[in-house]
Amino acid sequence: xxxxxxxxxxxxxxxxxxxxxxxxxxxxxxxxxxxxxxxxxxxxxxxxxxxxxxxxxxxxxxxxxxxxxxxxxxxxxxxxxxxxxxxxxxxxxxxxxxxxxxxxxxxxxxxxxxxxxxxxxxxxxxxxxxxxxxxxxxxxxxxxxxxxxxxxxxxxxxxxxxxxxxxxxxxxxxxxxxxxxxxxxxxxxxxxxxxxxxxxxxxxxxxxxxxxxxxxxxxxxxxxxxxxxxxxxxxxxxxxxxxxxxxxxxxxxxxxxxxxxxxxxxxxxxxxxxxxxxxxxxxxxxxxxxxxxxxxxxxxxxxxxxxxxxxxxxxxxxxxxxxxxxxxxxxxxxxxxxxxxxxxxxxxxxxxxxxxxxxxxxxxxxxxxxxxxxxxxxxxxxxxxxxxxxxxxxxxxxxxxxxxxxxxxxxxxxxxxxxxxxxxxxxxx
Length: 429
What we know:
- The chain has a single domain, classed as Outer membrane efflux proteins (OEP), CATH 1.20.1600.
- Helices cover 69% and strands 8% of the residues.
């Protein structure tokens, strides 16, 4: 009677454990659940790195108008015939002057273009930082999903093994099994406790990583979503590469860097062109109340030193800056394409693992547990076979959660590498 009741309870707990695969609500997952999108939006508002990049962009954008404009004009008064340094009188001539130096038109144009390109580069790096922060939220969020789901699965397994332990103890007390079976169950319980503790620490690290991006205390806890909805990806590898070359903010920043270097090179080559200075003067002689003479002046700078600076290395330096910018762009493009290939390979691997788990491994592992329970109840297998079946299903379930987490993390890697959220392509971020 005791054996029959214990076996029935053990089987009931086993089916409760199997139900976790179908994302049944667990006490571990209770509470108000924050979506990853909510965390990302909060991070974009609070993350110090994003705010720093935005401030840098705003600062450079504010300098663009300044670069287009010439220096301020000069206004002055020339006093002539003053009898003493600190004495004035009616025997002085007074001359009023206004002057303005205007750089050669190409200088202002190119100076403004350089400032504008620098602001564009800063803007793209600001958007890149937003992408990076979203990635730094998504990655630990899916790691948190994996760890908490794993803890939930292990706790369900722990309950099952505890129930099994009570049954084995009852059988041992009734002299229907030996003490070694009971000890084997106790060892399995302790091993599960170690795994639970380890995964709880992984959860803490994931939550601390999220808190760091949100500028929150590192001990903040985050309830996870009850399930991760799996979205397919319709884009091919070639499509992703093409999209990255068009949309990746960091790559666009390096491309703009080439344009900036070319504008700087042209500025260096035309810096010798003369500046124009115009001056207007009005003179009032001593003893007179009205202005009697007007003078006009126009002058040009002579490019003696500017030509020497260009010939002496300025032009060569500007050319090398262009070559450096082009090399940096090429290197960055190769890095982006490599990251896409790497993330795409991880995605396809996780996709294959998920399909295999859902179609083959999970159903077979569930059947193995059912068969082992029935066989143990009938006395055809010993306790080790039942523990092995339990361990296999536990590892299978954890493997499924890992494949699901890897799938979403690979999609997150692809979003970062491409520089796009991939919405409308089968993926909902």
